[in-house]
Write a structure and sequence with these properties.
- The protein has 711 residues and is mostly beta strands.
- The chain folds into four domains: 4-71, no CATH class; 93-479, Purple Acid Phosphatase, chain A, domain 2, CATH 3.60.21; 484-577, Immunoglobulin-like (Sandwich); 582-711, no CATH class.
- It contains six helices and 40 strands.
- Strands 12-11-10-23-24-25-20 form a seven-stranded mixed beta sheet. It has a seven-stranded mixed beta sheet with strand order 13-14-15-16-21-17-22, covered by helices on one side. A five-stranded antiparallel beta sheet has the order 1-9-8-4-5, with no helix packed on it.
- Helix 2 runs parallel beside helix 3 (233-247).
- The protein starts with 54 loop residues before the first helix and ends with a strand.
- Residues 1-80 have low confidence and may be disordered.
- The structure holds fe (ii) ion (FE2).
- Fe (ii) ion binds at residues 226, 257-259, 348, 389.
Length: 711
């Protein structure tokens, strides 16, 4: 397979000899052998990790690192780097950025220092210091020797504004003065802003873009790969120092670009970011938005590179098959959560291109590649796809498989993603535009720098592309109208006259205002009510139908309607009013009226009650002792009454069936309807007026318990 390598910008002046080396990138990385014993591995749950099988490598690497360390000048290249506003002390934190590990109660703050330092973070809900909360950080080194620190803020209240300070353990050097808003609870819609751009580098242009992104006061920031373009650690740190413009206030969730594989290295990239999972391909949910970041690898048309979301830090299984399976499963999970309304995929390589700058993509857009992911995005309902490989701004209309499905700038539930190319973080490059009908905007021929801004509310995402000098260049709105449905279970009832029945009404989905319920078609001499009669969707209500003594027999079609200020939704319901109906009451079925009282009386112990016995004895002679008699009493005390499911008082019971489980066969048994009062816990042989002979209407019927089992 031909692998399409890159023809990058000559970012001369800060790039030393950068060389791209195609080939496999190890998925199981030795982190880094830093100079601080015990801190050479990146934080994992705040504990350094090292696998046993790598231990000897680490030892060797430590030794090598130590040699390098003593031979190197001060940690490279911070001389002259400006101290960020809000920082103070001899060794202040730099490149401060937040990241989100898919837990709204946590936030990670990462920074670097020029000299070795301990680390600590303090925070609270009002500006400090003093701050009420604090935690020690983890100190580690990037493979290139940058001195990194990460502190995890825990116990955050979702959706709350927090102020913080980071520095060394004694706070002799610190950074203070920034704040951020913790993530909303998963599934809870909360308006927020995220910004995105790719292709930065350590240049004045990227600084301008980062500053503009920060000025937008985002809650999330998504660098779309190709972040460094350098193997010099000083320039890598310089990029993060520029990113601080947004990173100190927003969760930075980066995509891996092809240049990030080798300039400086994936290991360096993974050292600087702190993201969920393996940090290359990962997913997280922010409020009601599901985000999916994907590392498609070093080559856009290589189906064997990249990484899925499995494995440890900076790991993952390579190849399109693994990536596709992983992201398809994550998107399916997102779709199973009704509280997630939006799905945003972001990765460095584009799925649709708008110009010819990078003439390869992940979708079948005429650039010659096979479809690597569009089928999944369409099938799973992805709303937005962000990329940053092409050095331009451009975007599509909602499109699937080259077919534009909506045009204009307001897209209402289009059922296809909008693809944005945002590779405009650093120095620009130009090329001719494509002309396919699905292309909404192409800035290919015009040098363009800037970022995309996405303002998210529960059912709308408003997009703006803001160029660094020209300002607003493009905008569109994605909207998913609120909608709801009404369902009822059961959807039919059969009632007698003077009877009450109930059914459960569910209002599912979303509505911007309350949904009121009404019932139409209620028969004469019948009341049909829903309670509650209004609510904020989703909610449940109860339909109660009470027939009067002269309610007309027959089948009555009814309609239950939910209505808000703009739309009504209905569900049919059927009521049958019958002269007779069948009711079943079974002991142990959990029904409200299935209570069964049963006991037996025994002539041998005429004052003994057997109400708690699980077996009922019937025997006319020799029941337990010779010559003794047992008689069984059974009644259903709650089946008659006014509630739903009971037999209305005054009803004529036309037919009744009593089922008994015969455990010990016998001869003819007689059944009587008892008219004398008794209780399960009080009945004895002697408790009746005539001992052993409860008052009755005479013999009703006989039966033959000659076979075991139900009779
Ligand atoms: Fe790229």
């Amino acid at each position: 397979m031909t692998k399409y390598l890159f023809e990058e910008l000559p970012y001369s002046g800060w790039g030393s000899s950068w060389v791209l080396k195609p080939g496999a990138v190890p998925n199981d990385f030795l982190r880094n052998a830093g100079h601080e014993s015990g801190s050479f591995l990146k934080r994992s749950g705040n504990r350094p990790r090292v696998s046993q099988r790598l231990a000897f490598l680490l030892c060797a690497a430590l030794l090598l690192s130590a040699i390098l360390w003593v031979s190197m000048p001060a940690p490279v290249g911070q001389a002259g780097a400006p101290i960020p506003a809000g920082a103070s002390g001899p060794n202040p934190p730099r490149g401060i950025h937040l990241s989100f590990l898919d837990d709204p109660t946590n936030a990670v703050i990462t920074w670097h220092t020029v000299s070795a330092a301990t680390s600590r973070a303090e925070w609270g809900t009002s500006p400090g210091p003093d701050y009420p909360f604090s935690v020690s950080g983890t100190d580690y080194s990037s493979p290139g020797g940058s001195l990194l620190h990460a502190a995890t803020l825990t116990g955050l209240a979702p959706g709350e504004t927090y102020y913080y300070r980071v520095g060394d353990a004694g706070m002799t050097s610190w950074f203070d003065g920034a704040s951020f808003r913790s993530a909303p609870p998963r599934g809870v819609a909360q308006p927020f802003v995220f910004v995105a751009a790719g292709k930065f580098g350590n240049s004045a242009t990227s600084a301008a873009t980062a500053a503009a992104m920060g000025a937008a006061n985002p809650n999330l920031a998504i660098p779309l790969g190709d972040l460094y373009y350098t193997s010099q650690q000083s320039s890598v740190r310089g990029v993060w120092e520029k990113f601080q413009a947004f990173g100190e206030k927003a969760f930075v969730m980066a995509a891996v670009g092809n240049h990030d594989y080798n300039e400086p290295s994936l290991l360096d990239h993974c050292a600087f970011v702190n993201q969920p999972g393996n940090e290359r391909t990962y997913a997280f949910t922010y409020g009601n938005v599901f985000f999916l970041g994907v590392d498609w690898g070093l080559f856009v048309n290589d189906t064997l590179d990249g990484a899925d979301g499995t494995g440890g830090l900076c790991g993952g299984a390579p190849g399109n098959d693994a990536i596709r399976a992983w992201i398809d499963a994550r998107l399916a999970e997102a779709n199973a959560n009704p509280d997630i309304w939006w799905k945003v995929a972001f990765h460095h390589f584009p799925c649709y291109l708008t110009d010819y700058d990078k003439n390869r993509s992940l979708c079948v857009d005429g650039s010659g590649n096979p479809d690597q992911v569009e089928d999944i995005y369409v099938a799973r309902g992805v709303d937005l796809v962000l990329s940053g490989h092409a050095h331009t701004y451009g975007r599509t209309y909602p499109v699937k498989f080259n077919n534009r499905v909506q045009d204009g700038s307001l897209y209402i539930s289009p059922g296809a993603p909008v693809y944005t190319n945002l590779g405009t973080g650093g120095p620009a490059r130009t090329d001719a535009c494509r002309t396919e009908p699905y292309i909404a905007v192409c800035r290919g021929p015009i040098p363009t720098n800037g970022y995309g801004k996405f303002s998210v509310s529960e059912n709308e995402i408003a997009f703006e592309y803001i160029e660094n000098t020209e300002g607003l260049l493009d905008s569109f709105v994605l909207r998913k109208p609120y909608d709801y449905s009404v369902s009822v279970d059961p959807d039919r009832l059969t009632l007698l006259r003077s009877e009450t029945g109930q059914s459960r009404v569910s209002i599912l989905g979303r509505s911007p205002d309350p949904v009121a319920l009404t019932v139409a078609g209620c028969p004469p001499d019948t009341t049909c009510t829903v309670s509650p009669a209004s609510g904020t969707a989703p909610y449940t209500s109860t339909l109660t139908i009470a027939t009067g003594s002269s309610a007309p027999f027959g089948t009555w079609p009814m309609t239950i309607t939910g209505t808000n200020s703009t739309v009504s939704r209905t569900v049919p319901f059927s009521l049958q009013i019958a002269s007779h109906a069948t009711r079943t009451f079974t002991k142990g079925d959990g029904g409200a009226y299935s209570e069964t009282d049963d006991t037996y009386v025994y002539s041998g112990l005429p004052t003994q009650n057997y109400g708690t016995n699980v077996q009922l004895l019937v025997d006319g002679s020799g029941c337990i002792a010779a010559g003794s008699v047992c008689k069984t009493l059974i009644k259903f005390p709650l089946i008659v009454g006014p509630s739903a499911g009971q037999i209305p008082a005054g009803s004529t019971i036309v037919n009744a069936t009593l089922e008994l489980n015969i455990r010990n066969a016998g001869t003819t048994a007689d059944a009587y309807q008892v008219t004398e009062a008794w209780t399960e816990s009080g009945a004895t042989w002697n408790s009746f007026a005539t001992p052993g002979f409860p008052g009755n209407r005479g013999l009703e019927f006989t039966f033959l318990p000659t076979a075991l089992g139900l009779i």
